[in-house]
Amino acid sequence: MLSTKMQDALNAHINAELWSAYLYLSMSLDASAKGYKGIANWYAIQFKEEQDHAQLFIDYVLARGGRIALSPIAEVPTEWESPLAMFRDTLAHEQKVTALIDGLCRIADEEKDFATANKLVWFVNEQVEEEENVRDILDQLNMVEGSKMGLYMIDKELGGRVYAAPAAE
Ligand code: FEO
């Protein structure tokens, strides 16, 4: 059984994952409005992945006989000055999510909740991948800064991203 402290922390985290989904949908819409079809595609997939993350936590809490209490999702920004600014915000956001996952690990440890600690390993690894992917794109954007052709090429490449459901944990 989940302790109240662990359950509350997981519930708060479900909200954080849904907020991430909302943020990336907003980025996708902004990119789309500005003609960056590839970047819009990349963020639309990111939107789906964040919903997957929330669902994985929901499934886990339910599997442990816990309760989910959905709370309001806070407002997100709607516009970014450039793709570079968008990806900078994305990296900063993913670093925050990593810190949140680390916080959950600390609570699982304090509560001697080994099942939750074990479940969180997948998310710890996922965050390494999330940050690396965004950092790679950010590096590319920094390399071509000021070049419209460079930006066009990156947008085209990001248009090739395909959604894949989360791999087995
Ligand atoms: Fe759910 Fe992008 O971390």
In short:
Pfam families: Ferritin. It contains five helices and no strands.
How would you characterize this protein structure?
- May alleviate iron toxicity in the presence of oxygen. Iron-storage protein.
- By secondary structure, the chain is mostly helical.
- It has a single domain (4-159), classed as Ferritin, CATH 1.20.1260.10.
- The chain is built from 5 helices and no strands.
- The chain has helices spanning 4-33, 37-63, 83-110, 114-143, 148-158.
- α1 packs antiparallel against α2.
- The two termini are 21 Å apart.
- The chain binds MU-OXO-diiron.
- MU-OXO-diiron binds at residues 17, 20, 50, 53, 94, 97, 130.
Helices and strands, with pairings:
Layout: H1 4-33, H2 37-63, H3 83-110, H4 114-143, H5 148-158
The chain binds MU-OXO-diiron.
The site of MU-OXO-diiron has 7 residues, from helix 1, helix 2 and helix 3.
Pfam family, one: Ferritin
InterPro entries: Ferritin (IPR001519), Ferritin-like (IPR012347), Ferritin-like_diiron (IPR009040), Ferritin-like_SF (IPR009078), Ferritin_DPS_dom (IPR008331), Ferritin_prok (IPR041719)
Function: May alleviate iron toxicity in the presence of oxygen. Iron-storage protein.
